[in-house]
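hi support,

uploading two proteins for the ticket. first:
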Amino acid sequence: MLIRFLPGNQRFFRLFSQHAELGVQGCRELLLLLTHLSTERELRAQNVEAAEKAADRITRQTIELLKRTPVAPLHPDAIHKLVSVMDDVLDLAEDTAQTIYLYDIKRVTPAAIQLAEICVACAERLEEAVGLLVSRRNRDGILRLCEQIDKLESDADHVMRAAMSRLFRDEPDTRELIKLKAVYELLEQITDKAEDVANIIEGLVLERSWRG
């Protein structure tokens, strides 16, 4: 079947990859924001926002292309769901960056940085998995990456639970506690959404409608 070689269908895969690349960029900028709070907070928050806005444009382009494509390489509902949930990852990254900036958070814990590192790892594996969707020959590699993302999300859960326990036990300033709690929760939600994307990808490669 030559469906994947049609010009419009090749463009779907390029758009998926561009979106995933922006996901990596946004999560890396978020990590840099957390590790350079005193010197680069505004710059890094702006960079995360820029990545999110660029991804929004790609999401709209993908949906418009879907409307014009009679035979897509994936089921239309799957394409819409995939790009929408990928967009959720960057939405949450932007929410996290804006929370840090608007709450004027001046310090974060090692746990917050560890969670951000896990977010980056999830985004990198999503980028790799999305890039492999172009061919059925990549099925096993895609599934391995999805398993890795699932493991990373579990790691994030463990990090957040331990961080929350320390926060409520050791933080005397109620305002700081509220701020850090919000950051922990948003970072963990990024990994949740990354796992959601991985689950969508996993479902795609396991069903017969995948025409890659």
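and the second one:
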Amino acid sequence: MANDFFWSYTDEPHASRRTQILSQYPQIKELFGPDPFAFLKINVVVLLQLWTVTTLHDASWLRILIIAYFFGSFLNHNLFLAIHELSHNLAFSTPIYNRWLGIFANLPIGVPMSVTFQKYHLEHHRFQGVDGIDMDVPSYIEARYVTNAVSKTIWVIFQLFFYALRPLFLKPKPPGYWEFINLVVQLSLDATVVYSCGWRSFAYLILSTFVGGGMHPMAGHFISEHYVFKPDQETYSYYGPLNLLTWSVGYHNEHHDFPRIPGSKLHKVKEIAPEYYEGLESYKSWSQVIYMYVMDRAVGPFSRMKRKLPRKAE
């Protein structure tokens, strides 16, 4: 296994590819803009998950765990990726409406994260792989200790904790007004669930978030998106059926090339400009990606592309 990251001395590939594609296919600009059905889709998932909460107040812990893994995890991970969509303002043209909808989508997740996520995620797009800025890249501590199949399995199970806590330790940002609103709204919902339905129902929400972000098919996108399995390629797309449940986040090369296009239209980018994507390595199974990551001795947290911040941007 490598003992350091892959270091690139060129700019990230998406800005230049976006320029090339738009010069050849300017009609892609017609795909820019909000998804008119985003509000409806988010409301359906939130209400379905909150209704499920009301049915589990007397359930056994085994039943709660089973329902959380095979049902609730899909709903909460869908909402996490809805928040990802909203961080790009892809539900409404007015940014503040997207922020409020993100706080609403956050409710079944159980932990306030939508406002903070946007701050760090937009930096991931603007400074992909840049050392000290892109918090999507694992830390040196993670990479030093996650070195075999056992430690990688544990890392995958708890990867949501690493994903969420890494930026707070390595590049903390002072919380602002909107983080406070996110916190108050979330704690109000959590308290209401505990008061009305009991701790078991609240535990169901937390378990749905935790197991859905760990050793779970949908969580394979955390690894598939940017972990380097093929030299010289740092972003990978997934063209499998789970895109239907994940706001098409699998179209990840397309998403980084055109972050202003909603997930529901990303497949059209590949249809319009297939020559730019068919030659790139891609996946059809997120579960297979997790298996490859755990079992391949040459792959680990160091399997990410990093670059230094250009002098002109310092």
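thanks. also noticed: The radius of gyration is 19 Å.
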